[in-house]
Amino acid sequence: QLRLVESGGGLVQPGGSLRLSCVASGNMYSIETMGWYRQAPGKSRELVATITRGDETYYADSAKGRFTIGRDFGRTKVWLQMIWLKPEDTAVYYCNAKHRPTTGGEIADAWGQGTQVTVSS
Fold it and tell me: Counting Cβ atoms within 10 Å, is residue 104 exposed (0-12), middle (13-18) or buried (19+)?
């Protein structure tokens, strides 16, 4: 079982910044991709950013130019640096990992419990 734990959420004023972190632990063979999703009240969960084992990154249009995703060298940790936060960024942010529990096996998804980000004056 791969477990993900997020941290770093909180209350911030518009234009402020936050850095979210996620740590993976448990049985795993290889983590291929890690990323961040978010879900605001009344909305579906949406992709924010991802980073692959080869450090290729993807950003949703809403995140481009404001958010930066990165991984530690061991690739079991991922962070999301967010600047110029807007009220519409308010959501629960979830860490996601796509991994192979065994060598050559199917890729599985793992999710954290989420961390709340609130952008408000």
Answer: exposed
Q: What is the DSSP string of 75-121?
A: SSEEEEEE-S--GGG-EEEEEEEEEESSTT---EEEE---EEEEE--
Q: Token digits for 110?
A: 């793992």
| C-alpha span between 35 and 52 (Å, rounded) | 9
Task: Find where tokens 């991984």 sit.
Answer: 71
- Give long-range contacts, CB 8 A cutoff, 24+ apart: 59-62: 62/88, 62/89
Closest CA to 38 of 104, 106, 86, 107: 86
Per-residue pLDDT of the chain (121 residues; tens, 9 = 90+): 899 999 999 999 999 999 999 999 987 678 889 999 999 999 999 999 999 988 999 999 999 999 999 998 777 899 999 999 999 999 999 999 999 888 888 999 999 999 999 999 9
Measured in whole angstroms, how far is the alpha carbon of residue 26 from the centre of its chain?
18
